[in-house]
Amino acid sequence: MVGFGVIGLGMGRNRARLIKETAGADLKVVCDLHGDLAEEVAQELETDCVINMEHVFARDDVDVVMVMTPSGKHAQVGIEAAKAGKHVITTKPMDVSTEACDRLIAACEDAGVLCGVDYQSRYVDGNVKVATAIREGWLGKMILGEVRFKWFRSDDYFLHDDGWRGTWDMDGGGSLANQGAHLLDVLSWFMGDPVSVYGEIDIVNHEIETEDIGLAILNFENGAKGTILGTTTFPQSVYFSAEVHGTEGGILLHDVLNGEMTVYGKGLQEKLDSVENSVHSIVEDVVNAVTRGTPLSVDGREGRRTVALLEAVYQSAREGKPLKFK
User: Fold this and answer.
1) Distance from first CA to last CA of the chain, Å, rounded?
2) Which terminus of the chain has fewer CB atoms gathered within 10 Å of its CB, N or C?
3) Backbone angles phi, psi at 106, to 5 degrees
4) C-alpha torsion angle, residues 91, 181, 115, 253 (rounded to 10)
5) Rounded distance, CA 142 to CA 55, Å?
6) Sheet bearing 48-50, strands edge to edge
7) Which residue range is the domain that position 107 belongs to?
8) Beta pairing, strands 194-202 & 323-324
9) pTM above 0.90, yes or no
10) Do 155 and 202 fall into the same domain?
């Protein structure tokens, strides 16, 4: 059994439940600065709780620490966990800057522990099929990859929990960095790194530091194009999608969180049906990595790519011109 500790019980509460449901995983302790919340989750899941993360690091029965704090603290907490000899998994994005990501990667390498990022879309059957189709060339020469979401977030959402969301220091951006991080990861997974990026961001409907609407155009080395659209200003949350097509076929992923899709192209559906997905969650992935030595779906260097892309989009938006992507 692989022992887990969870720090931060926003999304961390969901992940703590997932640990309890996963074979080979053992939830040892949950941690949150809000003691009432920590006790509530501990009672629900029949585990220990603490309010000081140092107590998590000190436990011999914790092998893996899942860092579910505000984004701007991921590297800080993860580095301390690595120094204590714990494998480190952060929620998305990895942190708010590539500099912070690099520090966390280095700390985990120095300690000889795993470093990974929890991007749940990587474990959805439909998304795995699409990534395989592109890798195997089933869509022909790639032409266009698009990701977009139109969601609603109220002003109360940004004020909640000391108002860290929608700030540069703690959220690392707005709609693209928070909700959109999943889609930027999916686009990088499908299409690879771009060679140039042009971005625009704006605040149109919220009292926040960062964007509530963001757009970007990407160019890839093979000549393919990419587009990104993300906003939290739509009247309600309606879609979270990705679309890819090439010279031989196309796939519309209506929702990357569940993999629902429509397929276009002769014989493509049959090929997609042949693809099997062997890992279905971040916890299962980590258990396999610890016990069998298999690679994580999103290790630290892979997780860093989304942050690097975000930085490029924001820099381009500030400078008002396309930028080369390194």
Assistant:
1) 41
2) C
3) -65, -40
4) 100
5) 50
6) 48-50, 25-31, 2-7, 64-67, 87-91, 115-118
7) 2-118
8) antiparallel
9) yes
10) yes
Q: pLDDT tens for residues 59-73?
A: 999 999 999 999 999
Task: Tokens for 83, please give them.
Answer: 């120094």
For CA atoms 110, 111, 114, 116, give the dihedral sign: negative
Q: How far apart are CA 52 and CA 31, in angstroms?
A: 7
Q: How many domains does the chain have?
A: 2
The neighbouring-strand residues paired with 67 are: 7, 90
Tokens of 46: 């029949």
CA atoms within 13 A on the CB side of 276: 1
One domain, residues 267 and 132: yes
β pairing state of 64-67 and 225-231: unpaired
Q: Are strands 225-231 and 213-220 parallel, antiparallel or unpaired?
A: antiparallel
Task: Yes or no: say if 172 and 72 are a contact pair by the CB < 8 Å rule.
Answer: yes
- DSSP-assigned states of every residue in 103-148: HHHHHHHHHT--EEEE-GGGG-HHHHHHHHHHHHTTT-SEEEEEEE
Q: Left, alpha or beta for 162 (phi > 0: left; psi -120 to 50: alpha)? A: left
* Collapsed DSSP state (helix, strand, coil) of residue 231: strand
112 lies in the same domain as 143 = no
Return d(Cα 115, Cα 64) in angstroms, integer: 10
Contact status, residue 307 vs residue 94, Cβ threshold 8 Å: yes
Secondary structure letter of residue 159 according to DSSP: H
Cα–Cα distance measured from residue 323 to residue 317, given in angstroms and rounded to the nearest whole number: 10
Of the candidates 171, 124, 109, 135, which has an alpha carbon nearest to the alpha carbon of residue 300? 109
